[in-house]
Write a structure and sequence with these properties.
The protein is an alpha+beta fold and 87 residues long. The chain contains 2 helices and 3 strands; from the N terminus they run βββαα. The radius of gyration is 19 Å and the shape is flat.
């Protein structure tokens, strides 16, 4: 992650540029609702039986990291998965 000299609020992550903001239009109540929805999703995901879980192939967005600072990490994780028979 790096910032640009001309705008310290502009951040480069993974080859993409993001701009930080100090304002948010999300109320605390909305954040509570968002967090509750995420928690409910995670709970439903945890309830899936092991024999029904599957790994999505890397062809589904698995190459988005190529050419970024995350490429080595992602390739290392793929290697570990492959060696562990998870792919």
């Amino acid at each position: 992650m790096s910032t640009t000299d001309d705008n310290p609020d502009r951040v480069h992550i993974g080859g993409k540029t993001f701009e930080r903001t100090t304002e948010t239009n999300t109320t605390p109540e909305e954040m509570d609702e968002i967090n509750a929805a995420f928690a409910a999703f995670e709970q439903r995901r945890k309830e899936i039986p092991e024999d029904q879980k599957f790994h999505l192939s890397d062809r589904y967005g698995g190459y988005d990291f190529e050419g970024t600072e995350y490429e080595d990490y992602v390739n290392e994780q793929r290697r570990k998965r492959h060696e562990g028979g998870q792919d």
